[in-house]
Design goal:
By secondary structure, the chain is mainly α. The protein has one domain.
């Protein structure tokens, strides 16, 4: 098994800032998609239930699971990831309200 290491300048690797940008877009997109889909089917109760579950998942995943299980080289800020996951729920509720 090949050992994981930090890429050196000039190596063919993903730029960490680009990786973080894509990760945060994915965080928003996932919780937005789940929450907005629930809203389209069940209205505000769907937002409350699925949005609440998304926020609960975000808290457990980012503040418990990631510190224990995620690779140190790919770990970003747990608080930043949590905020983007919650942002997806907030944007879905805002879009549904319009």
């Amino acid at each position: 098994m090949q050992e994981t290491y930090a890429a050196k300048s000039g190596e063919n690797a993903i730029d960490p800032s680009f990786f973080n940008l894509v990760s945060q877009i994915a965080h928003v997109a996932v919780t937005y998609g789940l929450t907005f889909t629930a809203a389209r089917f069940w209205g505000w109760p769907g937002i409350e239930i699925v949005g609440g579950l998304c926020i609960l998942y975000a808290a457990v995943h980012e503040f418990f699971w990631d510190p224990l299980m995620e690779n140190a080289l790919t770990r970003g800020s747990d608080l930043e990831d949590f905020c983007f996951l919650v942002l997806g729920v907030a944007v879905a509720a805002g879009v549904y309200a319009i």
